[in-house]
Amino acid sequence: MHVVAFVTQKGGTGKSSLALSLAVAAVQSGLRVAVLDTDPQDTAGEWYKRRAAEQPEVHSLPWTYLSSRIYTLDRQGYDLAIVDTPGADSHAAQGCMREAHFCLLPVRPSVADIEASKATVRYLHERAKPFAFVLNQCPTGGRTSRTSNARMALQLLGSLCDATLALRSDHMDALASGLGVTEFAPSGKAADEVRAVLDWLRTKLRRLDGAEADKEVWEADDQSASRAS
Ligand SMILES: Nc1ncnc2c1ncn2[C@@H]1O[C@H](COP(=O)(O)OP(=O)(O)OP(=O)(O)O)[C@@H](O)[C@H]1O
Ligand SMILES: [Mg+2]
């Protein structure tokens, strides 16, 4: 099972909305998915109360219970756990980053968001935790220079998701209806963008699995070489 956490200290960047829409899109693609909401605001937990469908399951829990819940979900055969975190540089957010295999950092194309992400990036770099930014709430229409400037700034700080999400009302309406955007307006642009983020994420996770398998082979080779000498 892969564990993906949405983290940023800045509030309102889209952690909860993207976590939920991505989880729904992942269920629609055939994965068994759970959302773990560690934020006391309980945005995901409240969304689940408005939701008619059972999947993806949402579990609201303190971050200190995350490790044991992840262990249980893994044993139950889940493919993906998506962790929603509080928007602050807190013990909770740090605990979630440590538990995750991969972190996604939603950032709006604003200097304030980019600057606020630096502490999170430092924490992730220090722990060699794989992560990527995802640009969210980008202006639509011809006003793209802010987005391309943000794209360049983020590429200097770390990896950036190829797919970009625009500011679209489907996100707010889906959240209010207990739906993901791919359910709320399946042929809408917001849905296309969320599916593109999911495709990018699945490729990224497959590559990380490959890198991890290579590392294990190297370590096993090292161990047998040192036993032989
Ligand atoms: N791409 C988008 N287009 C339009 N609205 C969006 C988009 N992404 C998020 N929103 C809306 O912005 C608001 C804040 O998003 P959300 O609650 O997901 O942010 P958050 O990072 O989880 O905030 P917090 O740090 O407070 O938990 C919500 O109303 C959400 O629906
Ligand atoms: Mg939130």
From TrEMBL:
Pfam families xrefs: CbiA (PF01656)
Residue span, CobQ/CobB/MinD/ParA nucleotide binding domain: 4-141
SUPFAM superfamilies referenced in this protein's UniProt entry, alphabetically: P-loop containing nucleoside triphosphate hydrolases (SSF52540)
Domain of life where this protein originates: Bacteria
Protein name: Chromosome partitioning protein ParA
Provenance organism: Microvirga aerophila
